[in-house]
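OP here, attaching both records as promised.
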Amino acid sequence: MMTGKTPILILKEGTEREKGREAQYNNIRAAMAIADAVRSTMGPKGMDKMLVDSMGDVIITNDGVTILKEIDVEHPAAKMIVEIAKSQDEECGDGTTTAVVLAGELLKHAQSLVEQDIHPTVIAEGYRLASRKAAEVLESVALDVTPEDRDMLKRIAETSMTGKVAGANKELLADIAYRAVTAVAEEKDGKIDVDLDNIKVEKKQGGAVDDTELVEGIILDKERVHTDMPVTVKDAKILLLNVALEIKKTEVDAQIRITDPDQLQKFLDQEEQMIKDMVTKIKNSGANVVICQKGIDDLAQHYLAKEGIFAVRRVKKSDMEKLSKATGASILSELDEIKPEDLGEAGTVEEKRIGEDKMTFITDCKKAKAVSILVRGGTEHVVDEIERGLHDALSVIAVTLEDGKMITGGGSAAIEISMAVRDYAATVGGREQLAIEKFADAIEIVPRALATNAGIDPIDILIELRKAHSEGKKHHGVNVYDGNSADMKELNVLEPLRVGKQAVKSATEVAIMILRIDDVIAAKGTSGGGGGPGAGGGPGSMGGGMEDMY
């Protein structure tokens, strides 16, 4: 900026600035690049991605949020798109790819409106109105589900795993997911509440996916501390300790002066007696299993083994809390006053060898409010991907139980929204009408992508779907197996209502936020990202050479 002949420096030297339409286009291109990266993973015929990090570790997945978490995204607008996937995963556990692809499509259609000199705030208002209408449409097409609809809930879980590695064993995994979620579900004020933290998923390479099992209790990736301890304890009385079975060290530096060998022996005897007293207190409490969050001294291990008490040490705090819920035991920090009601109960506590490792199984817990799933698979990559599929299955059953609502998949809800939003656009008028119509076009990316990934002509299938929906067949979607439209309710392609609503809402919010940016100021030393100031990445680049991904 110049005033007379004296330059006035507002920004630090080296700071780069990009404003106006060019800044908007670069942000839109970056968002579209992220959406393109995961679009091919959508649907039953979606493909997987292989991600190799700087350490050479390999991840093979088609889970949208996992892909976006693992790739090193630099562009600030692209990072906002990645955030959608993360929030969708936290809120619903599924629908991450849909949310990201929809955001990219909304921005793509917004770009054509910006080129027609329609102000971004007008587009934003149109998108907001369309998003509200979409939520109403989803509510109107939603179907009721009750906790007793076991088959329906399992079908929802199977739909979430279709197209993933877990899809090959989806019946078994859906059954495990249903039993796990219903075991930990609690009714509060007439509403069902599911805390998925109460379901412990333990992975062990080896065996086959068919060997995956639900344990009504807790699995600890730990072995007993002493070989003389019993391998199996029936009718276990479990003591949970948050105190070390060791001699306490003084908190200040202390010296003990010993002038006589007898004094040394007395000192050692006293230490031994203190350990003995600890074990006696445990024995007298009636406990025959001790799970300790901290350490257990070698001498304490010896005395516990002599008393026939099964002990495990250094158990994670989260596992201790799950054990408390599963067995009904209290977590104690003092050994002095152990009451009978502080002890938990389990039918069996057993050390088993799984693969190369030994694990502790605490099973047959009465009315366990915490359960475990042991995931097996031939390789580490398979086990990891099965766990991701299982996470989706557990999440969708949980949110369906909480909301009591589901919608049909296969792009059927998207077509219903598209048609309703187009009709709604005519009633709005003004320039917002154009944005609402573009929203209707954008949401059709869901059936379009499903068809494209399955090798079906997307235009033909869209025409067929629009015809079916105009005739009142509101549950018709893309049947990727025969290339036609079909009733998704009959085919049991179902998903929770919350997944669809959250995807539309978060995609719209982030598209609006990116649209409203008209100035990007990149400070010196930042790496701006794809096409942004100082990026050097070229339009639509994801910064870290991620263009090679597709």
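Record two, same layout:
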Amino acid sequence: MSLSASGPVWRIRSRDELMAPTPRTMRIGWLIKLLLGWVWIGSCVAEAAGNEVLVIYNAQMPASEAVARHYAQRRSVPDSQLLGLRLSESGTISRADYVSGIQEPVRKYLFEKGLAEWVPDSSAPLPGRKATARNRLRLIRSEIRYLLLCYGVPWYIPHDSSMRSETEGIPAQFLRNDASVDDELALLPRLGFNDPIATTPNPVVGATNASQIHPTNGVFMVTRLDGPTPEIARGLVDKALEAESRGLWGHAYIDLRAITNGPYGWGDRMITNAAVAAKRLGFETFVDNQPASLGVGYPLSQVALYVGWYDSGVTGPFYRASVEFLPGAFAYHLHSFSAAHLRSASENWVGPLLARGATATMGCVAEPYLEFTPNPAMFLERWGYVGMTLGEAATAAHPVLSWQTVVVGDPLYRPFGRPLADDGKRLDDANDPRTAYALVRNANLQVMAGRPVEAVRDQLEGQRWATNHAVVAEKIGRLYWSGIRVRRALEWYDTALGLTNATPMQRRRLLLDSIEVHRVLGQPAEAYQCLEQLIVTSPPDVDRQELRIRQLQFAREMRDVEKITSVSNEVQRLGGKR
């Protein structure tokens, strides 16, 4: 089979076509046959449906009901599957009030509407459990798989010191019964089986078959539409649907801490594997290996996926009021209390990420301990590569329940339900600029499949999008850079910088990369000029003194006395402002 370097990359000439008297072109998408197989991203998972969702809202808050009804309308949820509960407006709810105000009303509603059925279960107590276990109910049938909690429903059940565990041998640090409402409600299929003290193993953790994640196997999938405002909560389904319709595009950013061993080594391993998962999906993936979190000057552009850890609240580029999240973006910062203030736009992580444009996220309402936090790599693999819904993938990534996790986003959100080829062809036929992201993802997949980098680069370079979209031009430059052809890399960085569709943060990265190229080439004057552009266009929170110090080094290499004096004075002035 041969590949055309001048036409779109999904225009492939098959073996039959090459043998035919008159060549003809078949559009078969990005299913590029390389050596032994096909490079593709897609799935055969069944479509999720609104009739599998029970939408729960706070009947005391009109805004909560408005979020619920908006979701029901967008996802075709039957009116009979909207449940209003009379709850306080507080984010916390006592254990007793949770049982009487949420758990039992939800169970009774499902039973009375014929949506689910529980039966008594008199099986022997679980190992380590006292013989006087509570009455147990086991779910044997359910039309509902997802429970969606809307803005206004509490998220945290505080510790109740009056409760005692029925299980022996619980370590002291786990003798707690505080939990997220969401994690407790997930166990509704097995009432009385699980001690509210400490954690309960997730019966479907690691599942790769979505049909296994079902209430008859012991767990409801629970997510919520929430955030700092009801408008933000309501918009989560709108952005999810947009991404499902048009694709989830952009780049992936992974922020590690350079921890290789010790008790925190597991965190870096999980997040390193998340980077692998993002790359397997074809996303242009930027990995930061520095111990500190991303700095304020980090060029966080066109974000589709973000996973990092371990600051108590938004820092670096996320501290800004505006982040370049693209529609459908998933963002997760692992921290013990990332969801403690779910409806704050400034505290911790979950609320601020939603306020800045993320479509889906996860977090913890209280100390979970690292091993009991959701596994982001497992989530991305199942969401992206298997093609599960947000609710399915997040539930499969939970190691334990009856604990501290909340998942915020449309549970039916499934942006990876179609092969990448289909999305790319559709976008290109419509002359949609998002074709650029599809081209880059496809190029990355071809490289991973073993196709020579040079061939992939040349093919990209021949596309019409190469010179009219900064994302493709930048990728070509990066491929030249990886091949140590630095002058050609610089030419393509300059091309990308000259295009109006380059975003502010992308321009920042391009300038930073151009500075490095000029340094390698021994061109201090050009590096100096790039730094000047970078400084002039930097957001106000960026450390300009650090940039001026770098600029001063190039001025000295140039031996330009006037510039040395001017920049030295600026460094001193900026230092005095601190």
